[in-house]
Amino acid sequence: MKRAAAEAAAVARAVGDVDLDAPTPSADWDTRALLNHWVLWTSHALEKRALREPFGEELTGRDFASEPGWRQEYLKHLDAGVRAWSRPGALDGDIDTGGGAMAAADVASMLTLELVLHTWDVAKATGVDYDPDFGTEFLPVVEKWADMYRQYEGFGDTVETPEGTSALDRALALSGRDPKWAA
């Protein structure tokens, strides 16, 4: 999670002023929707879930992308989330996710998945370089959750990749993303 968060922070710092209506790797989202999802789930929710705190409409209905200080707020909550998950016992027990209880370690795993995949989405949509070196470690995380995400329409169908494709690109493809996508 720490390495994924460091990469996400670098992408957030590099995102310039962007066309919020521009396309993204997710055909269902424009850049505004993607940024809002990314900020919510990979910073605020990252922190709130680790602290076992609920979050509601004040966050889920917020248009972060339209706020001038969204990057700084993202970085602040991203850092707070990583620190919260690093506390002793943070991975123990269950977390109420609003739809039921889930093992804290599984919640952390899923939030790391969200962090890596949506950071890639944001980087691709905004023209920022993103090539983390942890694809080999990340691929098993996507393999673990792919069926569940697909069941809830969080992932599309697997994208075919040629032999010799990097582990990160295989993880992206397994999540329904085209590793070759370009704006």
Automatic annotation (TrEMBL):
NCBIfam families: maleylpyruvate isomerase family mycothiol-dependent enzyme, TIGR03086 family metal-binding protein. This is TIGR03086 family protein. It comes from Actinorhabdospora filicis.
